[in-house]
Amino acid sequence: MEPPPAHPHMWDGLAAYLRGIDGILGVRPKAVVVISGHWEAPEPTLNIAPRPNLLFDYYGFPEHTYRLKYPVSGAPDLAQRVRDLLSDAGFDSAVDGKRGLDHGVFVPFLLIYPHADVPILQLSLQRSLDPGLHLRIGKALAPLRERGVLIVGSGRRSGCVLRFLAAPRSSRSRRTRREARRVAQCARRTRIASA
Fold it and tell me: For residue 7, what is the DSSP state?
């Protein structure tokens, strides 16, 4: 995607970072679980499509951005393990075999794994967006790392980057500090509750 004229190098650092993730990890994951900020459901829901399509869940972008391709394999075999971990932690979950991968998944992974050679399993956020609840979901999924599964959170915060840049600097920093405090509070409560 082309950056706005006022910020011609806006995406350069982010693109370089994403392209470097595979090298930073040191070992290629067997699969990736991606929790995207662009999919909310009443309960954690897994995209179990073996060959997920792309969901162009945005508007107002250049025409070529609606013709992107990312022919990655899904990871339906991993879905049952994720559901078991969620169940063990007290979460009901659901599956969806028809939803495509949203741009919170395919856009960064076009840069991270451009050959689409690492299977991806997308997991929704819970509609409540409760940070403590999502921290508990993350804790439940942590054992996947021992099996070579990369767990990634994507979307939401970066999705409003242009609006964020347009906001007055003083309100930007207040908003950022407020969000950081909320996440830190939830993290502390989650650690205390699980101790």
Answer: -
Task: Determine the longest span between alpha carbons in the chain, in angstroms.
Answer: 51
Domain count, the chain: 1
Model pLDDT, residue 145: 94
CATH for 139? 3.40.830.10
Q: Which of 43, 36, 108, 26 is nearest to 72 (CA)?
A: 108
Distance CA 129, CA 133 (A): 8
- Report whether pLDDT(190) > 50: no
* Helix, strand, coil percentages in the chain from 3-state DSSP, rounded to 5: 50, 15, 35
Looking at residue 9, what is its pLDDT? 79
Q: At what angle do helices 169-194 and 131-141 cross, to 10 degrees?
A: 60
